[in-house]
């Protein structure tokens, strides 16, 4: 009898222990969401607003565009450098807008901050397209910039403006800009109707320019964007053109944009060429999504509009095919997973892949639930809940449920990267060190093993290697550098799991 009571007590304690461990290990998605959106304030360029919350950052790049008599103030620095690359910036704006379109209802008080972040990007993209027949591709000489370790407030490298036009086209950057403006217009449709109309009208104009004057922007602006943000294939801009048309159709419902997608989707390249560790490698496009390849995003986005209709082909089958390329148990899996469970694809800054693909899984799961759908991967059928489970697993890993117990979001949890590859974060702030820090004078701050003095709260870095190991060192750029396009889709994911943990 006494032995039975003892065993019962031990069992009860074990159950309570598991509950406590689970509670301790559970993530505060609301706090992570707030920090995720705050990060964008640390990436702002230009004259900072009075409600700026990341106060160690100050005004910077106040003469951008002056070399062309343009006003190109504002926008975002893409990563840990001080260049404004419009291609990834536009993609980040598109993904922030898509996050709000799908999951803004769950953001609570952070919704307004998300809208502010979208508008900061959209306002700059409007300036970048203000002259008919021209689209800004980048601001800041990237070769000179990457040769320095300077605060954005101190920059004395050339702020060259790189622009594509009718004779030197750049369809990928132009079409992604059109997508960003269109998606943003949908976000502001109710609250700021006039602004929304301005955005969608500009999106139409920019899309027409991108389509009429076709060409790769690497051939037009060269070292202004390459090798940093190049689409390497011969017709690699076709996915951006189709992506832009898809967003314009979603926003306007105009038949011509649907016809454009229908006519061009069969002609998209079947393989994407990307730079991996200095070598060009090919991958099947249906399973790709990020700043340089939009195929999986196009299929998921349009599946939400045509699922269970006569127009479901080829979008729903291709979206299903994408899902089957990601699920760990799928016989068609084309990604790999670390021992701790982090998704990996070839290419630098792996968190961009883990998060962007998780966002698509989560969005597609909502579309499937709405239509009582599932995904057939041959040997098994995946319910929407399985897609959500994979996405949640990736986010939980990023926030600290991994072999190192490391949160890969700066400022979240007790253990996070302290030496991220980011100039503004690693150099003393203007408040702490008012004197100008010249180009090479920042090198000691780059080389030191000391933690960064300024917390870039909410930044998600490139992440650990495929063995779940991570070297917290700012010289390890591939793993320690944050980017706007890593955080942008994460905002939507965190909002959903905040509401449905």
Structure explained in plain terms:
The protein is mainly α. The protein has a domain at 41-267: Alpha/alpha barrel (Glycosyltransferase), CATH 1.50.10.10. The protein has helices at 2-25, 29-42, 86-103, 110-128, 142-146, 171-187, 193-212, 217-221, 238-252, 255-264, 295-306, 315-326, 351-370, 384-398, 423-426, 443-447, 477-480, 484-499, and strands spanning 84-85, 134-139, 161-165, 271-276, 279-284, 336-337, 343-344, 375-376, 381-382. A 3-stranded antiparallel β-sheet has the order 1-2-3. A two-stranded antiparallel sheet has the order 4-5. The protein has a two-stranded antiparallel ribbon with strand order 6-7. Helix 2 runs antiparallel to helix 18, helix 3 (86-103) runs parallel beside helix 18 and helix 4 packs antiparallel against helix 6 (171-187). Mean pLDDT is 92; it is low at 1-25. InterPro entries: 6-hairpin_glycosidase_sf, 6hp_glycosidase-like_sf, Glyco_hydro_9, Glyco_hydro_9_His_AS. Keywords: Carbohydrate metabolism, Cellulose degradation, Glycosidase, Hydrolase, Polysaccharide degradation, Signal.
Q: Write down the Rg.
A: 23 Å
Mean pLDDT: 92
Give me the oligomer status.
single chain
CATH C-level name of the domain at 41-267: Mainly Alpha
Distance between the termini: 41 Å
H/E topology pattern: HHEHHEHEHHHHHEEHHEEHEEHHHHH
Helix content: 40-55%
Number of helices: 18
Within the largest sheet, what's the order of strands?
1-2-3
Low-confidence stretches: 1-25
The biggest sheet, with number of strands, parallel, antiparallel or mixed sense and barrel status, is: 3 strands, antiparallel
User: Which of globular, elongated, flat, extended, rod-shaped describes the shape?
Assistant: globular
GO molecular function: cellulase activity
Catalytic activity: Endohydrolysis of (1->4)-beta-D-glucosidic linkages in cellulose, lichenin and cereal beta-D-glucans
Organism: Gossypium schwendimanii (Cotton)
Keywords: Carbohydrate metabolism, Cellulose degradation, Glycosidase, Hydrolase, Polysaccharide degradation, Signal
């Amino acid at each position: 009898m006494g032995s039975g009571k003892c065993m019962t007590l031990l069992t009860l304690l074990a159950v309570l222990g598991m509950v406590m461990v689970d509670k301790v290990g559970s993530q505060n998605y609301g706090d992570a969401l707030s920090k995720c959106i705050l990060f964008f304030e640390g990436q702002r360029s230009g004259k900072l607003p009075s409600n700026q919350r990341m106060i160690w950052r100050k005004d910077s790049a106040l003469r951008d565009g002056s070399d062309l008599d343009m006003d190109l103030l504002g926008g975002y620095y893409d990563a840990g450098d001080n260049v404004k690359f419009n291609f990834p910036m536009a993609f980040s704006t598109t993904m922030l807008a898509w996050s709000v379109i799908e999951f803004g209802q769950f953001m609570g008080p952070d919704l307004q901050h998300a809208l502010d972040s979208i508008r900061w990007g959209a306002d700059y993209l409007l300036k970048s397209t203000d002259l008919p027949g021209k689209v800004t591709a980048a601001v800041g000489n990237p070769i000179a910039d990457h040769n320095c370790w300077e605060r954005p407030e101190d920059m004395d490298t050339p702020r060259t403006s790189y622009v594509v036009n009718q004779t030197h086209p750049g369809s990928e950057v132009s079409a992604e800009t059109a997508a960003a403006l269109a998606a943003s217009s949908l976000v502001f449709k109710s609250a700021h109707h006039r602004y929304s109309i301005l955005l969608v009208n500009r999106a139409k104009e920019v899309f027409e320019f991108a389509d009429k004057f076709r060409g790769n922007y690497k051939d037009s602006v060269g070292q202004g964007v390459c090798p940093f943000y190049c689409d390497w294939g011969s017709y690699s801009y076709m996915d951006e053109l189709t992506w832009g048309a898809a967003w314009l159709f979603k926003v306007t419902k105009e038949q011509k944009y649907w016809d454009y997608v229908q006519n061009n989707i069969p002609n998209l390249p079947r393989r994407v060429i990307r730079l991996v560790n200095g070598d060009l490698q090919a991958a099947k496009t249906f399973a790709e999504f990020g700043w340089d390849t939009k195929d999986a995003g196009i299929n998921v986005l349009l599946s939400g509009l045509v699922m269970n209709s006569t127009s479901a082909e080829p979008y729903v089958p291709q979206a299903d095919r994408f899902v089957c390329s990601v699920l760990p148990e799928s016989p068609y899996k084309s990604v790999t997973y670390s021992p701790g469970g982090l998704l990996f694809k070839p290419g630098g800054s792996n968190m961009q892949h883990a998060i962007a693909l998780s966002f698509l899984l989560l969005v597609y799961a909502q579309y499937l639930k709405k239509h009582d759908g599932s995904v057939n991967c041959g040997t098994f059928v995946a319910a929407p809940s399985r897609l959500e489970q994979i996405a949640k697993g990736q986010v939980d890993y990023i926030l600290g449920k991994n072999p190192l117990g490391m949160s890969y979001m700066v400022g979240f949890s007790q253990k996070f990267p302290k030496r991220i590859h980011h100039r503004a974060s690693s150099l003393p702030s203007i408040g702490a060190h008012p004197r100008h820090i010249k180009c090479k004078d920042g090198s000691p701050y780059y080389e030191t093993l000391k933690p960064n003095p300024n917390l870039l709260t909410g930044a998600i870095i490139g992440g650990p290697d495929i063995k779940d190991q991570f070297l917290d060192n700012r010289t390890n750029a591939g793993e320690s550098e944050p980017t706007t396009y890593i955080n942008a889709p994460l905002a939507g994911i965190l909002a959903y799991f905040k509401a449905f943990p």
